[in-house]
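A reminder from the course coordinator: this example appears on the midterm review sheet, so study it carefully.

Given structure:
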């Protein structure tokens, strides 16, 4: 795992967008997308690179991590709508190549199995973008999620529902259930890139990167992955014990070595 500490959130966002651009240049054609405010800076910079620098997503297949169950299909809060509004409407990704777990499917459990199967056939994901919840969740894999989990229904924790209340005008509107890729599903991507910014993420980042590998911190699965990059700003890095070493690695990165 490589931990990259950037001075601020904008810089962290640009760093992750740069990793995406490099991966596409290297021939990656399958991209895993996630929602959450931490990724907004990444998506804004990708849209800018598309508009002004010719970055193209035309051959890319994209897969979303999760979506709420039970919202009306065109509700602006579905994560399908969020990812369109925040990224895919602003780049040249073919809308037919954006693949989503459908939270409005009549049988959500069957839909979760369909999506898992589809990922198995169309994958693996070359580069998976990730945020992290303040409780260490990945996607909607809340603490306690099996490290071997696959795409399935999950019940959101009250912590997460409180955090998402800002998008629903209060906690009462936040759905209780989601379809989410599982931790083992996420772990099948070739490269995991997690971004976390702000002081409220410092504890979760330290637990994920330097704590034990445990279902109590789902993001700790990054430790098990052969190619994981964690990009944080100074504030989110604040509780990392090995900061000096991570900075030393950055200063002495072998010439030509990629993230
Ligand atoms: C949601 C998403 C996660 C994301 C998390 C962090 O729960 N399902 O994929 O990592 O939010 O969001 P934020 O970056 O807004 O703190």
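Designed residues:
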């Amino acid at each position: 795992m490589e931990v990259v500490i950037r001075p601020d959130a904008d810089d962290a966002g640009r760093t992750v967008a740069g990793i995406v651009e490099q991966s596409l240049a290297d021939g990656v054609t399958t991209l895993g997308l996630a929602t959450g405010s931490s990724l907004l800076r990444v998506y804004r910079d990708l849209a800018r690179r598309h508009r002004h620098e010719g970055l193209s997503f035309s051959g890319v297949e994209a897969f979303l991590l999760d979506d709420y169950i039970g919202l009306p299909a065109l509700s602006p809060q579905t994560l399908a709508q969020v990812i369109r509004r925040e990224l895919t409407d602003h780049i040249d990704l073919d809308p037919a190549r954006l693949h989503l777990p459908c939270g409005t499917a009549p049988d959500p459990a069957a839909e979760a199995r369909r999506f898992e199967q589809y990922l198995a056939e169309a994958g693996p994901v070359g580069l998976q973008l990730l945020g992290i919840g303040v409780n260490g969740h990945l996607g909607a894999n809340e603490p306690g999620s099996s490290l071997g989990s696959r795409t399935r229904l999950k019940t959101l924790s009250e912590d997460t529902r409180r955090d998402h209340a800002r998008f629903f005008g209060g906690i009462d509107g936040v759905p209780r259930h989601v379809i989410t890729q599982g931790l083992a599903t996420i772990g099948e991507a070739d490269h995991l890139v997690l971004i976390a910014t702000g002081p409220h993420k410092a504890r979760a980042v330290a637990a994920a990167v330097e704590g034990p590998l445990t279902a109590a911190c789902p993001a700790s699965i990054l430790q098990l992955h052969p190619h994981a990059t964690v990009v944080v700003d100074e504030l989110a890095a604040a509780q990392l014990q090995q900061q000096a070493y991570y900075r030393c690695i950055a200063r002495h990165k072998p010439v030509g070595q990629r993230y």
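The chain has a mean pLDDT of 97. The beta strands are 2-6, 30-33, 61-64, 66-68, 98-99, 127-130, 152-155, 177-180, 191-196, 228-233.
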